[in-house]
Specification:
The chain is an alpha+beta fold and 534 residues long. The chain has 3 domains: 27-236, Roll (Pdz3 Domain); 239-371 and 406-435, Alpha-Beta Complex (2-enoyl-CoA Hydratase, Chain A, domain 1), CATH 3.90.226.10; 448-531, Lipocalin, CATH 2.40.128. Helix content is 34%, strand content 25%. The protein has helices at 2-68, 72-75, 78-90, 97-108, 166-173, 182-192, 196-202, 228-232, 283-295, 318-326, 346-358, 419-423, 428-435, 448-454, and strands at residues 132-137, 140-146, 157-161, 164-165, 210-215, 220-224, 256-260, 266-271, 273-274, 301-305, 311-312, 336-340, 362-365, 374-382, 389-397, 413-414, 456-460, 463-470, 473-478, 488-496, 499-502, 507-514, 517-525, 528-531. The strands form 5 sheets. The chain has an 8-stranded antiparallel beta sheet with strand order 17-18-19-20-21-22-23-24. Strands 1, 2, 3, 4, 5 and 6 form a 6-stranded antiparallel beta sheet that branches. Strands 7-8-10-12-13-16 form a 6-stranded mixed beta sheet, sandwiched between helices. 36% of the residues are buried.
Length: 534
């Protein structure tokens, strides 16, 4: 009987243990499920918060772009902008700050403005870069300098970065390189083709730690991304600058300087920014020195070098432009040359445009990085959630007619700058000037009678244009307005019956005889005619 009772008690106890164990397992499962649910809800909440923050940032950016950028409605295709914005919002939850910075650049690219961009090395971003200095020569992309252990790449032509050949990679990155034109994008490519977040965006790489680079020799090299400090130690001087003069290093930190070239009669004026040097003469005094040299009769030719960037204050230019325009010794065909490149922009672009429209200057080099009617005066806008800083431009600075739609200024003498020129320190710009020969056929001046008939004041597209004669020559003038750099002063020549040409390649005039007296009827700009009225 005791055994039976013991057996029953044991069975009951065992059953209770099993039930308790089962209950504990269920409780454990519920706890685990609850924890997973909490974690999942937390992740979803974080994801939702992140998405909301990005959307707020993007909406704020759109608002700032349209408030800040001059003529934003005209410059930006609203449909394209809104489609791109919606696309970014839909994938915002999955993007890191560095990835979003590239996506923001795709929005800014729609402004078609060089100075609307996200600086990749700002505090809010952790952007790395390849420790290479490359340059897009006319014959391809070459490595000009490299940090160890990649020094063997110096001098190599790059055929492919990651999954793409250079030309294809350039085309893909154009969508995230804000610029007025393709020439400035070629200048930018050397930087953006070395940033991992941009290469990943383009589909060139999956791994943001390193990239394979294929050179023209057929070799494949694996190069690791590093911090900015390695890149800053490299020789980063603009490629053509190595061939300037033996005294270039003396002026490395100066915004402007000048010297006579070897023949002792050609004054070379280097401009990097229109802003006073930290030491030495002010820009105004610098221009006075140029004036003294020209007045002395020692200068037969002047070269203005506008190739290297161009920040500064455009209102400081008038002393220099007036000097060159008014100098009878220098303002002649073959006496004044202006050097331009794909990086010519800002105040130096303004100077190039003013000299083209007001002197007989010959432009030498590459198409400029901006067009004549540009926007400037950059400001920084900080996105509220991510704290990413975005640069936007806020002022429109006209240097030509409103109807001038050019996105670049083309040179009169084009230069092809090759890697071999760089290696042997050949300055193709200066060589082009040395080889330049004035056309022997002199442009004919309109006859005295026609000059007298055409003299007068005209209106064209809201501009007041005057025609006057002096010393037997005929001139066209548009005076400068407030808050504008646009002014025009050019000599006119007889082209054919009923047509006048000018010193400005894109400008000509048509005239007709009315009541036995001739009068200007149309201004032609890049082939398009605009009605003129007296």
């Amino acid at each position: 009987m005791k055994n039976i009772l013991f057996h029953c008690s044991y069975s009951t106890y065992f059953l209770q243990i099993q039930m308790l164990s089962l209950l504990l397992r269920k409780v454990k499962s519920v706890v685990i499920l609850s924890l997973l649910l909490v974690i999942n809800i937390s992740l979803l909440s974080q994801e939702s918060n992140k998405t909301t923050e990005w959307i707020n940032d993007l909406d704020y950016l759109k608002d700032q772009i349209y408030k800040t950028l001059p003529q934003a409605e005209e410059r930006i295709n609203e449909n394209d902008f809104n489609l791109q914005l919606a696309k970014l919002k839909s994938k915002a939850f999955s993007l890191s700050k560095e990835e979003m910075a590239v996506e923001i650049m795709s929005l800014l690219a729609l402004t078609k403005d060089n100075d609307c961009f996200v600086y990749p090395f700002q505090e809010a971003l952790n952007t790395q870069i390849l420790p290479l200095k490359t340059y897009f020569f006319s014959d391809g992309l070459y490595v000009c300098d490299a940090a160890e252990p990649y020094a063997d790449l110096i001098g190599e032509k790059i055929e492919q970065i990651g999954n793409y050949k250079i030309d294809n990679l350039f085309k893909r990155l154009q969508a995230v390189m804000p610029a007025d034109n393709v020439h400035y994008q070629r200048y930018q490519f050397s930087l953006y083709s070395q940033l991992p977040n941009f290469l990943k965006w383009a589909g060139a790489i999956d791994n943001q730690k390193e990239v394979s680079i294929v050179t023209s020799s057929g070799a494949t090299n694996t190069v690791s991304f590093g911090d900015l400090s390695s890149y800053l130690k490299l020789e980063r001087t603009l490629a053509s600058q190595v061939g300037l003069t033996s005294s270039q290093s003396i002026h490395e930190k100066e915004n402007y300087w000048m010297e006579f070239l070897e023949d002792g009669k050609c004054l070379f004026v280097q401009l990097k920014a229109i802003a006073n040097n930290k030491e030495g003469n002010s820009f105004s005094d610098f221009v006075k020195e140029i004036e003294i040299l020209i007045s002395s009769g020692k200068v037969e030719k002047v070269i203005i070098d506008n190739r290297y960037g161009g920040g500064g204050n455009g209102f400081m230019l008038s002393d220099l432009t007036d000097l060159l325009h008014e100098s009878k010794a220098i303002n002649q065909s073959g006496k004044l040359f202006v050097l331009t490149s794909r990086s010519t922009k800002g105040a130096l672009l303004e100077l190039s445009a003013i000299l083209q429209l007001n002197t007989k200057a010959i432009l030498v080099g590459e198409a400029s990085g901006e067009g004549p009617n540009t926007v400037g005066d950059r400001i920084a806008v900080t996105l509220p959630s991510s704290e990413i800083e975005v640069n936007l431009t806020k002022v429109f600075w006209p240097t030509s007619f409103r109807f001038d739609q050019r996105k670049t200024i083309q040179p009169d003498l084009k230069v092809n700058y090759t890697h071999e020129d760089y290696l042997y320190k050949h300055d193709s710009w200066l060589e082009a000037i040395q080889e330049y020969k004035l056309a022997s056929n002199k442009k004919p001046t309109p006859n005295f009678s026609l000059q007298n008939e055409l003299v007068g004041k005209y209106k064209v597209e809201g501009y007041k244009l005057s025609i006057y004669r002096e010393d037997g020559k005929l001139y066209a003038v548009v005076k400068k307005k407030m808050r504008s750099f646009f002014e025009l002063h050019t000599e006119l020549y007889q082209a054919m019956e009923g047509s006048l040409s000018s010193d400005i390649p894109q400008l000509s005039f048509l005239y007709e005889e009315k009541d036995e007296e001739s009068s200007l009827t149309k201004l032609k700009w890049l082939g398009k005619a605009y009605e003129m009225k007296e």
